Amino acid sequence: MDPTLDAGVEQALAAVAERALRCGSHAGMELLLRETLRLTEASGAALYDGRTCVARAGTGVAGPSSGGGRLLKVWPERTGRSDGQVLERLSAFASALLAAHARESAAEARHARLLASRREQERNAASWEQRRSLAAHDLRTPLMVIKGYLDMMMKGTAGPLSATMQRYLDRMMRSAQDQRALIDFRLGRGSATDLCPLLHSAFGPDTKRASRWSVALAVPDRAVMVKASPAQLEAWVRALVRGLASTHATSVTLQLELLEPMRCWRLAASTEGGREPGERPFMLLGELTRRLGGSVRSPAPGGHPWVLQLPAELGPPGASGS
């Protein structure tokens, strides 16, 4: 091949490769066809993947592909030796572009299917959320009426109660409360998060504060599910760490236990070798605890521990066994 022509082909292929890299394989194929027309002086060119014309350029009508595979076709047919060499090199690059285009088309089709599936799942989720909300409302409304009448009867609004009547009302009130808890558990929107991994991560030996204090952590041998999202509970644990760090204690003891009758987790935190906690860190911890539906008791002079309570997600009533 003439050196000048060879350099022109190399320059054309470099431009096509850059175009395909920047704009995709189809843009690269369009530029390749234009360069083919320029280098071969043909009136038209087309790229075939099997019997399917993927891209074409120039004038005239492309004849049908007679064979399978991926090929570059020009018209009128070029019979010169140099044209054959140019077409051979361009065809090799065209085959790579067609393969890349097939992969891109498959990826786009897969993405379209995934997007359609996601939209269908979102529609189903919205429909189920609406059903959940309606079911929870329909179940809670008559239960509220029942509890209202039970409260009035227990307050003596309907007259004095005998011991037997009082006992029956107590049982009915407990059943109503259990039913409300069951409805909230089955149909509630709130999420639950395990507190144990967050405590181990925050107070473990690999944390940056491990060299400043010694930590004794005692937790139940079970999942400590708290009615909170992961982000909410992570913020709460960070506030707990900052509050304890503000005491500059050399030793921290954390003990977590379940108060099953109250359906809550009780965390007792005691410190040694420090001072009173900072006001702002403790206020932040108290605010986040209250947002989670819990309570906090501040440490008092004399070594009394911090006591924090968080609502537990134990499942339906009677299902809180370990």
From TrEMBL:
Stated EC number for the protein is 2.7.13.3
- Domain of life of the source: Bacteria
Instruction: Domain (Signal transduction histidine kinase dimerisation/phosphoacceptor): give its ranges.
Output: 129-193
* Catalytic reaction annotation: ATP + protein L-histidine = ADP + protein N-phospho-L-histidine
Q: Which GO terms describe its molecular function?
A: phosphorelay sensor kinase activity
Q: Which InterPro entries match?
A: HisK_dim/P_dom, HisK_dim/P_sf
**Keyword terms, alphabetized:** Kinase, Transferase
Protein name, as recorded: histidine kinase
What species is given as this protein's source? Myxococcus llanfairpwllgwyngyllgogerychwyrndrobwllllantysiliogogogochensis
